[in-house]
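Explain the record.
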Amino acid sequence: MTAAAAPPVASSRVSASPVSTSPSVSSPAAPSPAASKIDAPKIAAQKILDLVDAYLHVLFAERGASAHTLRAYRRELHGFAAWLVRHHPRLIVARIEHTHIRSYLGTLYDRGLSKASAARALASIRSWFKWLARNHHIEQNAASLVSTPRLPKHLPRVPSIEQLNRVVDSALDDAASWPARDRAILEMLYGCGIRNAELTALDLDDIHWANEAILVRGKGQKQRYVPLGDTAAEALRGYIAERSTLLAADDGQQSLKADDRQKPFNTPALFLNLQLRGLKKGGQARLTTRSVGRIVKHIAILRGLPSDVHPHTLRHAFGTHLLEEGADLRAIQELLGHERLSTTQRYTQLTTAQLTAVYDRTHPRAK
């Protein structure tokens, strides 16, 4: 008798439900708490950097800050932001306290920076915090609670009138690569008291010959007119004649090399570099502030002045010598383009002998 076939045994394996091949439409999964913790420092750091860059853009686009000012602010604020990200990675800008700023200044001292450097960094941070508060990014200005480091008051060492007259009036053939230009530079720095950056920013059209004045663009794109003395005007005329000759000669050389008719080379810049670098590529061949510094220092050393003479020394001398000769302090402030009178007072100095002479001449009990 044959055995009946056994009924099929049900499999103990649970069959998987069929997987749909159609794409699943579902809301994105919420980030896990762990992922949020990882991203928080990056988000905080990026926000701080974005606010720094936004403020730098305001300085450039709205306040007309110079390239030198922008470089200084960028260096100081990026340094502070990098320190915050390194030491307080989760800190948002609204939670920055005055203790954080003081700690950052402490690290600057630890790196060997001077009080003047720390004060410059604090000034940039204060300016940034004022902008943050004005635009409602923070509720309280923590930087206003940090006091400025006390700086030693150094009177600028200024050459005498006789020393500077000897340098400016001397022949520069042995001390300058372009004597006419370099003489005009010395006359403008000492005779007009303008800054190095203001000198290099001058255009040919800024000289108002009829009014015997020059139009100067100072800090923050503020404009002022400065008198142009006779010796400075004479030096400028001699230099401008050689400047025109140099541009015409360079244009003639280029015409020989090219078959087609080229547009004559020209530039609005008043003071040019001798090689006319950048002119052929559409630039202006404008002399840089660094080059002016080298020119002034080289001539000063060859003529017996101290090695620490720089273009700003001539500006100090301009204000000091005017005051020595009896000029009014307010007039000197206008000529130098200072916003505050206290700044002018730091640029000028009086010797003990001069103070005694003023006292003897003016005080009723001195006679």
Notes: Strands lie at 207-208, 213-217, 223-227. Residues 161-353 form a domain with the hpI Integrase; Chain A fold (CATH 1.10.443.10). The chain has two domains: 38-145, 161-353.
